[in-house]
């Protein structure tokens, strides 16, 4: 696994007496889509927050291309090529769509500014399906369009690793199909993606592998079909009686 | 071409304003100085607090540092050196305070900045009482009202120029992102600490210089005059009334409020504070977007109706 893009091992994070993430390990090969699954409260978002630098781990290591990034400030991690979206969509309300993407371009790996940045911003908006909406206020966007904008902002960082926190949640079937196609096309460009997701259709059609968490620990790992049939996974989601 | 036109209009306005001391009488010049003083302070306040939404009550801390530096150094060296030293002290304090407090959010930051101004006032008072054994200093420098006016005008031009340059820069965008969502800011590669501290220090630099330039107005100052917290509140209320979303917004708060305060102070000297408090509440309740925001919304509604 030395060729891994991201390698997490022994990751532990406590909140007071609660161990939210307990000795977690996972790895992503370049170009892979890994699904991180588990019931609510199992620690998935905390893992994402630890990787993106929003939180510091109590123990364990996170390596990006072999370099330790655990406990690094989030802006440094972003500049190293890790971009993310948020579980509760976070667009920049006082900025218009183009400016939202410009913000990602201006401070990310490329540090684009000026005319070149505006052109790139419009390309990225088109890429996520927001062509021609550059000057639209974010308050006028529908929920899916806000999610698209958030994705465009993340892509503006030109990331090597993209962390999607329930990016496909709350979409209607048509939107979901578009969303899945969009994520798949990103992989086609060589991007590596770690996605936290509950939508089973998305997991089955997108993920190469899945890691399932429960109560902060990894309980299964493998192909989507294999882990979703795993007895312990079913017990984690549905309880003992149904297993 | 529009920016060039704006630049020309600005240059003409400054040229006209520069002639005021040539024909204004004593009272008019004094009023003009007060207007410029608050224009510089409120615009400098907006440079930082407008985009980031960090409400600072430390205005008078820096203003007072500027004024007191002049009181201590007056007659000991040439005027430009005094200004330079005041500037250095103000920026140094701003950097220390910025690095230690800008992690605080919302109301904690407000209260800390208010406490900071009081703390500095108490330290200066303690020093004067226990070390120099005099509370209060006389300032005798060969600087008259017209000189003060011109210096303030130059400072006003600088603060606007700085605001325009920042607005068009990466730093300006960074501050707006921070104001919207600091978590997002950090996750798109913005070093939020550096951005905030840099702007806080720049804003403080203008406030300090403003205090230094204004000091000769008083001939006598003591800590209660130089660090009067009312100044912080007045600057805040003026910026809010004008509107902090535009660089020129505070102007629209400074002019009516300076005139109003002037009137209240002349007519109701004993009830001044109560009336200022009432004005403050009215402004926050009635036009939270400020005059500029209010007018812009009105125009937009009219445009939509037409």
Return the average pLDDT of chain A rounded to an integer. 91
CATH architecture assignment name of the largest domain in chain A: 3-Layer(aba) Sandwich
User: Helix proportion of residues of chain B, in percent?
Assistant: over 70%
Strand order of the largest sheet of chain A: 6-7-8-3-9-10
Radius of gyration of chain A over alpha carbons? 18 Å
What is the number of beta strands of chain B?
Answer: 2
List keywords for this structure.
heterodimer; A: 243 residues; alpha/beta; Rossmann fold; six-stranded mixed sheet; four-stranded antiparallel sheet; 9 helices; B: two-stranded antiparallel sheet; 2 strands
Overview of this protein structure:
- The complex is a heterodimer of chains A (243) and B (306).
- Chain A folds into two domains: 142 residues, Rossmann fold; 77 residues, no CATH class.
- Chain A has nine helices and ten strands.
- Chain A has a six-stranded mixed beta sheet with strand order 6-7-8-3-9-10, with helices on both faces.
- In chain A, strand 4 and strand 5 form a beta hairpin.
- The mean pLDDT of chain A is 91.
- Chain B contains 15 helices and two strands.
- Chain B is globular.
- Helices cover 79% and strands 1% of the residues of chain B.
- The mean pLDDT of chain B is 90.
- With 306 residues, chain B is an all-alpha fold.
- Classes of the chains: A alpha/beta (243), B mainly alpha (306).
- Chains A and B meet through helix 2 and helix 3 of A and helix 8 and helix 9 of B.
Could you give a short description of this structure?
The complex is a heterodimer of chains A (243) and B (306). Chain A has helices at 44-52, 74-79, 97-107, 115-127, 143-155, 173-188, 200-206, 224-229, 231-238; strands at 6-15, 18-28, 33-37, 59-64, 67-68, 82-84, 161-165, 192-196, 209-214, 217-222.
Question: Topology of this protein?
Answer:
The complex is a heterodimer of chains A (243) and B (306).
Chain A: E1 6-15, E2 18-28, E3 33-37, H1 44-52, E4 59-64, E5 67-68, H2 74-79, E6 82-84, H3 97-107, H4 115-127, H5 143-155, E7 161-165, H6 173-188, E8 192-196, H7 200-206, E9 209-214, E10 217-222, H8 224-229, H9 231-238
Parallel strand pairs in A: 3-8, 3-9, 6-7, 7-8
Antiparallel strand pairs in A: 1-2, 1-4, 4-5, 9-10
Chain B: H1 2-18, H2 20-23, H3 26-52, H4 59-73, H5 79-101, H6 106-132, E1 137-138, H7 145-167, H8 170-180, H9 182-187, H10 192-214, E2 220-221, H11 223-226, H12 229-242, H13 251-267, H14 272-286, H15 290-305
Antiparallel strand pairs in B: 1-2
Helix pairs in contact in B: 3-7, 3-8, 3-10, 3-12, 3-13, 4-5, 4-6, 4-10, 5-10, 7-10, 12-13, 12-14, 12-15
């Amino acid at each position: 696994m030395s060729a891994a893009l991201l390698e997490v091992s022994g990751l532990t994070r406590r909140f007071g007496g609660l161990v939210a993430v307990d000795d977690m390990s996972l790895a992503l090969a370049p170009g892979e889509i890994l699904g991180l699954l588990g019931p609510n409260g199992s620690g998935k978002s905390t893992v994402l927050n630890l990787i993106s630098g929003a939180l510091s781990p109590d123990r364990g290591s996170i390596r990006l291309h072999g370099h330790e990034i655990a406990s690094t400030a989030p802006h440094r991690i972003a500049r190293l090529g890790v971009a993310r979206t948020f579980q509760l969509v976070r667009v920049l309300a006082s900025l218009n769509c183009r400016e939202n993407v410009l913000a990602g371009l201006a401070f990310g790996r490329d540090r684009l500014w000026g005319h070149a940045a505006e052109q790139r911003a419009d390309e990225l908006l088109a890429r996520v399906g927001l062509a021609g909406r550059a000057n639209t206020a974010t308050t006028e966007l529908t929920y899916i369009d806000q999610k698209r904008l958030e994705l465009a902002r993340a892509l503006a960082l030109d990331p090597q690793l993209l962390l999607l926190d329930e990016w496909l949640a709350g979409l209607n079937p048509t939107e979901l199909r578009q969303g899945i196609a969009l994520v798949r096309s990103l992989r086609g460009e060589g991007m590596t993606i770690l996605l936290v997701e509950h939508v089973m259709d998305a997991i089955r059609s997108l993920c190469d592998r899945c890691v399932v968490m429960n109560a902060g620990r990894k309980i299964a790992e493998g192909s989507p079909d294999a882990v979703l049939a795993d007895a312990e996974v079913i017990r984690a989601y549905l309880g003992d009686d149904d297993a | 071409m529009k920016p060039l036109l704006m630049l020309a209009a600005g240059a003409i306005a400054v040229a006209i304003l520069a002639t005021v001391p040539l024909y204004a009488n004593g009272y008019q010049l004094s009023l003009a100085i007060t207007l410029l003083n608050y224009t510089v302070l409120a615009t400098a306040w907006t440079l930082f607090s407008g985009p980031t939404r960090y409400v600072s009550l430390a205005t008078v801390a820096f203003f007072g540092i500027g004024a007191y530096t002049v009181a201590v150094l007056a007659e000991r060296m040439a005027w430009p050196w005094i200004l330079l030293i005041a500037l250095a002290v103000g920026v140094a304090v701003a950097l220390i305070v910025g690095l230690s407090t800008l992690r605080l959010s919302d109301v904690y930051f407000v209260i800390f900045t208010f406490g900071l101004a009081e703390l500095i006032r108490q330290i200066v008072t303690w020093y004067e009482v226990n070390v120099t054994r005099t509370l209060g200093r006389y300032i005798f420098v060969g600087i008259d009202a017209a000189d003060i006016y011109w210096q303030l005008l130059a400072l006003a031009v600088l603060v606007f120029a700085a605001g325009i340059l920042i607005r068009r820069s990466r730093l300006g965008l960074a501050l707006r992102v921070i104001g919207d969502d600091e978590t997002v800011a950090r996750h798109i590669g913005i070093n939020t600490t550096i951005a905030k501290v840099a702007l806080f220090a720049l804003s403080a630099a203008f406030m300090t210089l403003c205090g230094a330039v204004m000091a000769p107005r008083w001939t006598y100052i003591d800590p209660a005059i130089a660090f009067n917290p009312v100044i912080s509140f007045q600057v805040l209320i003026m910026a809010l009334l004008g509107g902090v979303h535009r660089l020129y917004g505070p102007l629209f708060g400074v002019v009516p409020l300076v005139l109003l305060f002037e009137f209240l102070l002349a007519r109701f000297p004993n009830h001044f504070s109560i009336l200022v408090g009432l004005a403050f509440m009215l402004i926050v309740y009635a036009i939270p977007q400020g005059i500029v925001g209010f007018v812009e919304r009105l125009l937009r509604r009219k445009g939509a109706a037409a």
